[in-house]
Design goal:
Blueprint: E1 2-11, H1 21-36, E2 40-46, E3 54-57, E4 60-63, E5 71-81, H2 84-92, E6 101-106
Antiparallel strand pairs: 1-5, 1-6, 2-5, 3-4
Length: 113
């Protein structure tokens, strides 16, 4: 089955400790919705708030995320889905789309030699 990275974007600083009980309930329901559409979450992680990020550009190290933005990457997961259409249906159900968004990107598979 094809694999996709699903990047979760939320308003900065995207502190997972500030999630509302209603939002957490939506997150808890999400894996069952993924399975109903024929997908499977292989692995996923929430990130600490963007205020904890450190960016490295060459020899320069700065506090904060790599890019200053109103929305930041709040987490990610690897999704197995039959195809991109199903992956996008699954992405549309993610609670992050309420106040932020998600990005679906196929995992790179090197061409066979």
């Amino acid at each position: 089955m094809a694999q996709y990275a699903v990047l979760i974007y939320s308003p900065a600083p995207a502190d997972p400790m500030e999630l509302t009980p209603d939002y957490v309930a939506l997150l808890e329901r999400y894996p069952a919705q993924v399975a109903e559409l024929g997908g499977q979450i292989v692995a996923g992680f929430a990130l600490a708030p963007s205020t904890t990020a450190t960016a490295v550009r060459g020899d320069i190290v700065t506090d904060g995320p790599f890019i200053e933005a109103k929305e930041v990457v709040a987490g990610f997961f690897v999704l197995e889905a039959p195809d991109l259409d199903v992956a996008l249906k699954i992405a549309k159900l993610n609670p992050a789309t309420i106040h932020g968004g998600v990005e679906v990107r196929p995992l790179f598979v090197p061409p066979a030699e």
